[in-house]
Design brief:
Helix content is about 35%, strand content about 25%. The protein has 12 helices and 21 strands. The chain has helices spanning about 10-20, 40, 60-65, 85-95, 100-125, 145-160, 170-175, 195-210, 255-260, 320-335, 340-345, 385-395; strands spanning about 5, 25-30, 45, 75, 130-135, 135-140, 165-170, 185-190, 195, 215, 220-225, 230-235, 240, 245-250, 270-275, 285-290, 295-300, 300-310, 350-355, 360-365, 370-375. The strands form 4 sheets. Strands 4, 6, 7, 8, 15, 16, 17, 18 and 19 form a 9-stranded mixed β-sheet that branches. A 6-stranded mixed β-sheet has the order 10-2-1-14-21-20, with helices on both faces. It has a 3-stranded antiparallel β-sheet with strand order 3-9-5. A hairpin with a 3-residue loop joins β12 and β13 (about 240). α1 crosses α12.
């Protein structure tokens, strides 16, 4: 049995704790918040083998430049002087090539399929109950350009062995009649699933506590105490936590903490927005509105409307214009579904930890013998939670890993 400190209580940190506990280790989870908010709680809840193309794809730079100074656009970069962001943006541009995307596709696909399998194993194990449905996800488009692009992606998906079906407007209306006439068709990725994130997060926390995991809330890490090639302890304002192994799963704050260890793990926080509607909407299938970059999910007892990508630093400030843009997209793409003023007022935001090349950082570092990294999952954080935790536990136990870690090594930069 090893003593393990997990720095970060999001989906990656808790799944790491879950698999570490399964292997008999003693785990302490530290988090800078009270672990009730953030991207792991407010995301769209998708498990998405369909999302095998990384964010850093050809064409994204051109599109991003068009949108970047419009604060209500689906992709927004707040103008600011930030050297670390400039460095990250340069690496992002270098990664947005066809050859690099083609290398990333099988890695992302395998991670997603393995993670979906592990979620379904969690359901079967009955350690704790949570909402999980495999109805697939609709990629619904409103323009001929988007239709062409989505059909191209669907062809790749089918060649990769994923279950994807092209739907005409008439076929789409039969299975999701609440969509408006603006939507001209969709690709139905039947390989995908969805969940209710906060329900899972509360369930896994309760289960971990019952297994002896210690949670330390509102603990911001000051620095790590090191000796040679090992880490002895992590220090917060209130205490010092010693352990045999350390897992750095701090989401968008991972980059700064890694820098204190002289590690280069470039991550930027990509802010997403979320609104919940606790009344009937008629929406029964998870749907991504391709042109509006919005994700809609029927969850346990409510419907979640989420989306957009904003790079404005590590903050959770909610911009009214972005909430309005998301609400407008919903009104445009659905019949008789409108987000009211009260629901807009309750909009929340969370930071997705975005790596430059669209691949997460998972595994040990060469600099420290007892440090593993679990971060940089971007918009796939929820989808890849279980496989991340499984890989971390395998690394700490020095066992062969479920997936080759070389492409997602924390040392690749």
């Amino acid at each position: 049995m090893k003593r393990v400190v997990v720095v970060g209580g999001g989906i990656s940190g808790l799944c790491s704790a879950y698999y570490l506990v399964k292997e008999g280790h003693q785990v302490t989870v530290l988090d800078r918040t009270d672990m009730s908010t953030g991207a792991s709680f407010i995301n769209a809840g998708y498990i998405t083998p369909s999302h095998f193309i990384p964010l850093a794809a050809p064409g994204i730079i051109t599109q991003g430049i068009k949108w970047m100074f419009n604060s209500s656009s689906p992709f927004y970069i707040k103008p600011r002087w930030d050297v670390e962001f400039f460095k990250w943006a340069y690496l992002f541009k270098k990664a947005a090539t066809t050859s690099k995307v083609n290398k990333a596709i099988p890695v992302i696909k395998d991670l997603n399929l393995k993670s979906r399998e592990l979620y379904e194993q969690m359901v079967a194990d009955l350690d704790f109950a949570f909402h999980y449905e495999r109805k697939g996800v609709l990629m619904a488009y409103s323009t001929a350009k988007s239709e062409h692009e989505e059909h191209e992606v669907a062809e790749k998906a089918i060649k990769l062995g994923l279950d994807a079906v092209l739907l005409s407007k008439a076929e789409l209306n039969k299975i999701q009649p609440v969509l408006s006439d603006k939507v001209i068709g969709a690709v139905h990725y039947k390989c995908d699933a969805h969940m209710t994130p906060q329900q899972f997060m509360e369930g896994i926390k309760t289960w971990l506590k019952s297994k002896g995991v210690i949670f330390q809330y509102n603990q911001t890490v000051d620095h790590f105490l090191t000796k040679g090639s090992g880490i002895n302890a992590v220090k917060t304002r209130d205490s010092v936590y010693e352990a045999d192994e350390f897992v750095l799963a701090s989401g968008s704050w991972t980059s700064d903490l890694a820098k204190s260890l002289k590690l280069n793990i470039p991550i930027q926080g990509g802010k997403g927005y979320s609104m919940d509607v606790h009344r009937p909407t008629g929406i029964t299938l998870p749907t991504i509105l391709v042109d509006a970059k919005a994700a809609i999910t029927p969850m346990e007892g409510f419907t979640r409307f989420a989306g957009t990508m904003e790079f404005s630093g590590n903050n959770t400030m909610v911009r009214k214009e972005r909430v309005e843009a998301l609400a407008f997209a919903v009104k445009e793409h659905y019949r008789e579904v409108e987000i009211n003023e009260s629901e807009k007022q309750n909009a929340t935001s969370g930071l997705r930890p975005v790596s430059p090349d669209g691949l997460p950082f998972i595994g040990r570092t060469s600099k420290y013998s007892n440090l593993t990294i679990a971060a940089g999952h971007a918009m796939m954080g929820w989808s890849l939670g279980p496989i991340t935790g499984k890989l971390i536990a395998e690394q700490i136990d020095n066992r062969p890993t479920s997936i080759n870690l070389a492409p997602i090594s924390p040392d690749r930069y």
